[in-house]
Amino acid sequence: MVKNIIEFFRNLPAKKCVECGKEIEEQADCYGNKCDHCMGLHDL
């Protein structure tokens, strides 16, 4: 059963920004749905 769960998460599509559609690099504790650029964090 554990193997099936691992495969399930491996096969999920990449998370994308809701504004521009760019693929977002996911982090374990992040639930955001916008990329850094759309949030205005690209210049920091």
UniProtKB/TrEMBL annotation:
Any single Pfam family the record assigns to this protein: YhfH
Superkingdom assignment: Bacteria
InterPro entries given in the database record: YhfH-like
Protein name, entry field: Protein YhfH
Origin species: Niallia oryzisoli
Gene behind this protein: yhfH
